Amino acid sequence: MKLVAALAAIVLLLAGPLTGSALAATPASGAPAEAPVTGSPLVLTLEQVTPRLVTAEGPATITVTGTLTNTGPVAVDELEIRLQRGDALRTEGQIRTAIEDSAGTDAVIPQFADLPGVLEPQQRIPVRFSVPLRGGPGVGLALSQPGIYELLVNVNGVPDGNVRARLAAVRMLLPVLSLPPDPGVGTSPLEGSSARSPGIPFTMLYPIADAPRRLPGVPGEVTTLTDDDLADSFAPGGRLNGLVSALAQRAPVGSRVRESICLAIDPDLVLTAAAMRNGYQVRGPDGTLGPGRGAGAAGSWLDALVATARGGCVLALPVADADLVALTRGDLGELAARAVTDGRELVATALRTPVLDGTLWPADGLLDESTLAAVGTTSTAATRAFVLSAEGIEQGRAPATSGVVRIAVAQPGVTAVLTDPLLTRAAVGRTGIGSPQIVSNSMPTPSTAAGMSTPMSTQDVIGALLFRAQEGSKPGSSGPLVLAPPHQWAADGTGADALLSAVSRMLDEGLLQPRSLAAVVTAGPPADSRSRRLFYPVSAGAREIPPALIDRVRTTGDEINRLRGAAQSEPGVGASPADVFDPMLRATLRATSAAWRGRPDLAGRSEAMISDRIRELRSSVRVLEPPGPYSLGTNEAPLLLTVANGLPVAMTVLVELHSTAGLKVAPIPQQRVPPLGRIQVRVNAEVTRSGQFAVDATVRTPDGGSLGPPTRLQVRSTAYGTITVWLTAIAGVLLVVLVLRRMLRRFRGERSRPAPDHPRPGPADPHAGAPNPRAAASHPSHRNRPGPTTPRRVPTQRP
C-alpha cells in the first residue's frame, strides 16, 4: 500500500502542470484541476484593476496589479497566475451568492501566466498581468454581452516540493456596461451597448467616520489620543484624506454626481481633527505619553473637508456614531437623544454649513420602536425622517428595496427613506466591515481592525449598482435607489474615486437620475402608501454594545453629573460648567460607538480608558498631603488643610476627616475652591490623647459623591487631652484619700490603746483548786484578789 501511494504521489506531481495547461487550453466549464491547500502561506493583495467598469471606450484588456506575499515558513516555486470568470449574473440571488464567494468562476478559464522566481519565506513580489476582455476562451475572458460577471484572480504554485495547488485567490464582480470592439471580429452596434432603461432616481450617502480615539479632557488641556493612526489617515494617501480628495475631484459642488450625494459626517471625528491641529499627545499601551505627529495633516484635512462640504447636502451622524439602540435598551434614552441633537449642532458649527435637520441615519440603518420613541418627534432630538435599511421595515408579499414609507408609530408624520440592502451588503465587503479584500485559499480573512481599507473595496458596489440600474425601476417603487455604505466604510481614495467615476458614467448613460436626500425627505411618501412597522433583526441585537458595558457607561455618566452639580460659574475666571462637563458626557458615547458593534473586547477597552480618564479628572479635586506630620502642642490646636482643584471651574466641596480615637473634629462647612486653584481650610480639632496617629481626609460633592482619593495625614500630639486630665485628677484625689485614710487609722489606733497601772489585790477564788498563778491572773473573778506582791518599777508615761 505504501508503494502504491508513493507511485500515485509521483504521478500527480509530474502530471500537475500538464493537467493545468491542458484544462486551460479548453473552454472548460467544470471544476479546475487545482485544489486549495489548507493553511496556504501566500496572500494576494490587489492594488488596482483596470478598467473597474468596462465600457466601449476601452481599454480592450483588463490589467491586474498587486502584491504576492509569502507569509509561511517554506519557499514556493513554479508560481502561475491567471484570470478566470463565471457566467453572467442575472438575478439578485446570484449577485448575493457571488458576494458571498459562492458563485462559479469556471465558465471561461484562460491559460496561466508564469511568475518568475522562487518566493522565499517573508518575501513579496509585485504582480502585474493583462488579459484580453474578448478573444478566445484560452487567451482571454471571451466577453460578448454586457452584464455582471464574477471574476477570480487565481495563483497556483508548488510549496517546498509539494503538489501543485491553488495557493491564493481574490474574487470580485466585473461590471460590463458596454464592450470595446473586437479587433479580429468587429462589433455590431447592439453588441457594444447595454440595454437602455428609464433612469432610476439615485441617492448616495457618503460616510466620513472613523473609530473614536480621543480621551476625555478639559478646556486648556493638551488633547490626548489612544493611538496615532489618524495621523496616517489624514495624511496624503490615507483613507480619510482619499475620501475627501476623491469627492472634491469627482463630485464638485454643482455637478450631477454631487447632486445625488449627501455627506454623512461623524461629529466626534471633526472635533478630534480640530483638536489635533493645535497639538496633541498619544498615550501608549504602557500609559506613557508622547507627542503626536499628525497636527499639520489634521488641519489640512479639516480645511479640505470644510471647503468640500460647503454648498452640498450634509447629514450629521450621532456623536461618536453611538449605538442608539443599545443606549435606549440600557435606559439611557436621554443620552441617545442628546447624541443626535449635539451631533447636528457640532457638525454645523465645525463645518460652517447647515446640516439636514430632523433626519437621522442610525448605525446599520436599523431601529427598534423604543429607540425611535427616544429620538423621534416627541423627544428633544425631534427627528421626523429616518434613513433605514429595507430589511429594518416590515415587508409585505412584495418586498421593497427602495422608496419612502410611513412608520406606524403613535406620533404621525414619521417617515423612513429605505436603503437598498443589496448595495449595502456589497459595500461592506467580502471579508467583513473594515477588512481588506484579501482572500487566501478562496476563503475570507477575518476582520482585524475597524477602518482598514483597500483600493478594491468598492468593486462589488459598482457591480451591484450597475445590476440595479440595468434592472430598472420596480413596480410600486415610490422613491429613489439609495446606496448606503456602512458608517465605518472600508473605502479609501482609490476605491471612492472608482465608485464616483462609475456613478458619473451611469448618470451620463441615463441609467441613473440624481436625487438629493433633502428633496426625498421633503417629498415624503405617496399619499396612498400604508404605514409599516419597524423590524429589528435578532442578528443585529447580537452585535449591539453589551448591556454590562452600558451599565458602566451609566455609572460614569452619574459621576460626571455629580461633578457638574458641585460646579459653579465664576465670571471672568475659568470655564463654565457646560464647557467642562458637556464634552465629558459626550466622551462616554465613544465607548458605545457603532465602530465596536460585534467587537465587545474593543468596546470594553475603550470604556475602561474613558472611565479611567474621568476618574483622573475627578481625583484632581482632593486634599493635598502635607510634607510632614502635624504637631499639636495643645489639646485644642487647629489643623490647616490644603484643598486643590485641578478642574478649570469653581467647585463647592465638603471636607471630611476620619480618625480613630484621638481626635475630635468640629463640623466643617462647605468650601468653594477656585478654578485650577487651592484654598486652606482651618479645621477646629480637639486632641483626646497624646502620641502619633493617622487621619484620613476626603473631599466630596455636596450630594455625597466622592472626588479625590483619601489623603492620609499624620498627627503628632504632645498635649494632654481631656481624658488624660480627668484620669490624672482622679488619680490625685485617690492618692489624697488614701493618705488621709492611713493617717486617720493610725490616729484612731493611738487613742484606743489602754494606759498601764499597778495591780490591786482581790478576794481568793473559792473555786480554785491548786494554786495556778497564770490561771488566777487570767480569770476575771481573781483579778482583784490580794496576793503576794513584788515591787515593780512604774514607767514614766509620755503625753
TrEMBL record:
Q: Which residues form the signal peptide?
A: 1-24
Tell me which InterPro entries the record gives: DUF6049
Keyword list, A-Z: Membrane, Signal, Transmembrane, Transmembrane helix
List the transmembrane segments. Answer: 719-740
Q: Name one Pfam family in it.
A: DUF6049
Q: Where is the composition biased (Low complexity)?
A: 786-799
Q: What is this protein called?
A: DUF6049 family protein
- Where does this protein have compositionally biased stretches of type Basic and acidic residues? 750-760
Region Disordered, residue ranges: 750-799
Query: Any keyword Transmembrane helix?
Result: yes
* Source domain of life: Bacteria
